[in-house]
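agent> Task received from the user: take the single chain below, predict its 3D structure, and emit structure tokens. No templates, no multimer pairing.
agent> Plan: (1) validate residues, (2) run structure prediction, (3) serialize to tokens, (4) report one or two observations.
agent> Step 1 OK, no nonstandard residues flagged.
tool_call: predict_structure(input=
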Amino acid sequence: MSRFNLKFINFTEPYNPSVLANILHNYAFFKSPVDKLQEELSIVDNYKKHPAFLDLGRTVRVFALSLDGTPYAVRLISQDIRQQHFYARLCGGSLAANLPGLERIVAASLDTHVTVSHLMPGQKLAKLPAEELAFISTEQIAKLIDSLVLAYESGVLIDTSPSNLFYDRRAGFGIIDYISVGGLSYSLGYLLAAVIRGFNFDFEHRIRNMTRAAVSPQNIENFCAAKIQIISLYLQAAKERLSTKDFQITISATKIMLTTLKRMAKYYGINLYWSEWRDSNPRPLAPHASTLANCATPRL
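)
tool_result: status=success, residues=300
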């Protein structure tokens, strides 16, 4: 580790020196397979067709890598991205190394701006099937809130884009994109509100392009009940960790979500009702039987 003298590197954001030194030192273990991957990518017409391709972000291309049976994610940063952004990600990785629920950066190269992380298990929330929602537990929601609070307190700026939120039945929730900043400019309530707004699932995306006749009213009712339950669990966990002012910010975000959900259900012939936020438990009531009777035969 002595060869990485951090004082000669322009890291302007807060970081953990020993952890960052380890991250840089570890890249020697990954250099050969990453070099091979980059060589393969240099000769393919479309990198998205490479068998290791995982995802494309605004600033990175992500590829899978397996070493000694452990899955990793290799991020290749676009050439036009400023060096300081890469440094901020590394600094964030050093601060988040021991934070539960956040992606762990294990290696990085200052020469090629490559980072290697443990592959986040599960699926993006936007692609999470409706049947998976029932597995989201109170404990998993609470752990997500704890992760957000710890990240905030550690000075880690989380990119709350829905594409950065993952869920796995066993591992729970995970967050994959963040940087270090010299002072967060938003409140904790704003952070929790931004994250819950990203709870948009596969079912919601699919039915946007479907006719009323092609959607099962029962599936709409079941999905709405499951999502309301998740919002309720989120608010319960948030209430225990936020000040009154910050909690109101999170409640405001969920009220907009519930209004949108109610509008969607009504479009498909279902009226949703729930109690006001008084006892941390918004409850959906059964839709009118006459409403269901007038709906088309379920096909979804």
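agent> Step 4: summary for the user.
Residues 123-293 form one domain.
agent> Done.
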